[in-house]
Each structure stands twice: as structure tokens, then as C-alpha cells.
Amino acid sequence: MNEFVTPKQAAEILGISLRKVWLLIREGKLPVLDFGPRSRRIPIAALVEMARQGAEKTSRTAV
Predict the structure, then answer these.
(1) Mean pLDDT of the chain
(2) Domain ranges of the chain
(3) Contacting residues for 63 by C-beta, under 8 A, at least 6 apart
């Protein structure tokens, strides 16, 4: 299994826009690795953590 995804793939996985992914990267909330010019990848572990945190927020506000 590939350990990294493109920003576009990350947007699809998280169900958010590509623009929001880039905003999260700029804000330092989502790590990105540079593999060369115009070749950036996001660790899948970071997406899992972000999704987990989002689920926790949702469950806390639903109570």
C-alpha cells in the first residue's frame, strides 16, 4: 500500500475541496512532503489522524 497521497486524493478522502487541503497545508494543520518540483505528497497517517479528530469533534458537539 502506498503511504502517501496527492493533495487531490487527500481532498477526495476527506470529502473537502482541494482548495481547503492547500489551506490546511499552509496553516500547518496538514503535513506535506516535497518529492520534487510540483510533486507533493501527504502521509496517509496524517489523514487518518485528521479524520479521527474531526469525528471526535462531531461526536462532542452532537451530545
Answers:
(1) 88
(2) 4-62
(3) none
